[in-house]
Design brief:
alpha+beta; five-stranded antiparallel β-sheet; 13% helix; Umud Fragment, subunit A; 4 helices; nine-stranded antiparallel β-sheet; single chain; 22 strands; 323 residues; 2 domains
Length: 323
């Protein structure tokens, strides 16, 4: 038998003598027909917040504004390698591009190993654009793949609209002609830096292809054949098997004339000698145009064709309108 505890006995006696008091607050009963909801786990809150932010970011990126960096010198001096831009994707929802507009667009050339390429299309199952299930690869840099989930969207390219639907476009000794009239505006650049930006060039090489010369690229393409415009001049013709003048040979500096079909545009980079543009891969479809560069919000790199320059922040270009 346990010995009595005088301390516990005193506390017990005081509790018995204490009068019961109504609490100063009351608990509201749950109304009939309603269920009590427990607080969501913190992990669920975080997952929902991340998914919501992802959806909002995708809507903004795909339909309103998008930022990107200029990786190559094809638009110099207008846009330099290392310019960081904000593109306005709303402008061409309501208006069609005009001549000399700078446009961003989905690269028309389908790259190998992507969900759109005929040889690799069967390796992917579309979940929802731009996410695909990659049946062949678990991890890859291009297209970006992690745990068999591939993020793929055609890269954005920036060029300037030169030829409008119905125009006849021709390049003669590097100079562009639209409907037979010379088209020069002062932003055109030529010559080839070695090495190419973003590296610092050590020399600038002037280079020209002669009329009728095979350049090893454009000369071997056939996409422009249905759009040729007949011309009387045969100085740049090749000879066919019978020794008669054949078709005019196109190259980078002597191209066309060709007629731009309806719903298409002929685009070129301002830095004509180093720009892979409509001369190489064809007309730009209206549906592939996604927007226009709006403002440069940061810029770091070398100055245009400045020999032995070192990369630096180009403060004079920050917050400059892209035009």
């Amino acid at each position: 038998m346990k010995a009595p505890n005088p301390v516990k006995d005193k506390v017990r006696d005081k509790l018995k003598k204490a009068e019961y008091k109504e609490p100063a607050y009351t608990i509201t009963p749950i109304p009939a027909g309603k269920k009590f909801r427990r607080r969501k786990p913190w992990l669920q809150d975080w997952i929902e917040a991340i998914l919501f932010a992802f959806v909002v970011a995708m809507i903004i990126r795909n339909y309103t504004f998008q930022n990107f960096m200029i990786p190559s010198p094809s638009m110099e001096k207008t846009l330099l390698t290392g310019d960081y831009l904000v593109a306005n994707k709303l402008k061409f929802y309501f208006n069609d591009p005009k001549r000399e507009d700078i446009v961003t667009f989905r690269y028309p050339k389908i790259e190998e190993g992507t969900p759109e390429h005929p040889d690799s299309r069967g390796n992917f199952i579309k979940l929802f654009h731009p996410l695909y299930l990659n049946k062949k690869s678990s991890f890859a840099k291009f297209p970006l793949t992690f745990m068999n989930i591939t993020y793929y969207a055609r890269k954005n390219v920036v060029k300037r609209v030169i030829g409008m639907p119905g125009d006849i476009v021709e390049v003669r000794d590097k100079i562009v002609y639209i409907n037979g009239k010379k088209f020069e505006r002062g932003y055109e650049c030529y010559d080839i830096p070695q090495p190419s930006p973003p590296q610092s060039p050590v020399q600038i090489i002037p280079h020209r292809f002669a009329e009728g010369q095979d350049d090893g690229y454009i000369s071997g393409y056939s996409w422009y054949e249905p759009y040729r415009v007949a011309v009387a001049d045969t100085n740049a013709s090749i000879l066919n098997a019978q020794g008669q003048p054949g078709k005019k040979v196109f190259n980078r500096d002597w191209f066309g004339p060709i007629r731009v079909p309806q719903g298409k545009y002929f685009v070129m980079g301002d830095n004509r000698d180093v720009s892979e543009d409509s001369r190489y891969w064809g007309f730009l479809d209206r549906s592939d145009i996604t927007g226009t560069p709006f403002v440069i919000f940061f810029s770091k790199g070398i100055e245009y064709n400045k020999l032995f320059d070192t990369p630096h922040v180009r403060w004079n270009r920050i917050f400059r309108l892209a035009r």
